[in-house]
Amino acid sequence: MATTFAKAAEKSAPATHAARIGHVSKSFPGPSGQQLVLDDITLDVAPGEFVTLLGASGCGKSTLLNLVAGLDSPSEGTIETPGGRPALMFQEHALFPWLTAGKNIELALRLRGVPRQERGDRAEELLDLVRLSGAYGKRVHELSGGMRQRVALARALAQDSQLLLMDEPFAALDAITRDVLHDELTRVWRETRLSVLFVTHNVREAVRLAERVVLLSSRPGRVAREWTVDIPQPRRIEDSAVAELSVEITEQLRGEIRRHGQR
C-alpha cells in the first residue's frame, strides 16, 4: 500500500526497472460501497522502454498513471520508481498563461533547484530539443495547440526524471498535428532514452509509438494482454504492419468491452 521513490544513484547497482507495479488494486467510495477500479495490476517498465497503456474509457488507465505519479496511493500493492519521482504530462498543456514559454520551463527548473543563472540557457536547450527554437519569449496565447504541447513536453523534461508519464497528451489535437507530434515524441524518446508510460484509448497511436502495448480490461481494470511491437522505428500510422497489429489489438479490445457490457 505504498508508492516508493528512490534515486537510482543511491543504489550500488543500476536499476533493473524504471517502474515496478506490484499487485496494485485501487477502490473508491461509491453509492453502494467501495467500487473496485483496478484489480491486482502487476507491470514493470524497463529503463528506456516505451510502454502504452490501452483500454476502453473508464477502465482505470489514468487512475493507474496517477498512482505511479504519486498523486494518489494504491488500496493494495506497491509501486516503485527507482529513478525518483516521475514527470507527468497531462492531456491539457496546463501552462501558466501569464508566463512565456521559456518561463514556464524555468519554473520547473527552479523547483528542481537549478541556479537562476543556468535556467535560461537550459530552457532554451529544451525548447531546441522539442524544435521550438525562438519561442522562449512567446506567451501561451501566441502558440498553436501543437506548440503548447511541445512546451509542456519540454517542461516535463525539465524535471530531469528518468520516467515520463503521459496521459493522452495528443487527444485534443487535430490528426495532422497529432501525427507530427508522434514523430517528435519518438525522436525525443530515442535521443534521451527516457522510460515512457503513455496512456491512450487510440489503438493505432499505441502501436505507432510503443515497444510494448498493455491492454487493460474494462472495469475493474486488469492486465488482459500484452504485445511486443517489433516494427522498426520510425513508424507511420498508415504503415501496413501498424495497421495489421492494430486490427488484432482492436479485436481484443472489443472483446473486453463486450464482456463488460454483458455483466
UniProtKB/TrEMBL annotation:
Question: PROSITE patterns recorded for this chain?
Answer: ABC_TRANSPORTER_1 (PS00211), ABC_TRANSPORTER_2 (PS50893)
Q: Which residues cross the membrane?
A: none
The record, for InterPro entries, names:
AAA+_ATPase, ABC_transporter-like_ATP-bd, ABC_transporter-like_CS, ABC_transporter_ATP-bind, P-loop_NTPase
The organism sits in which domain of life? Bacteria
Q: Where is the ABC transporter domain?
A: 19-245
Q: Does the keyword tRNA-binding apply?
A: no
Name of the featured protein? Sulfate ABC transporter ATP-binding protein
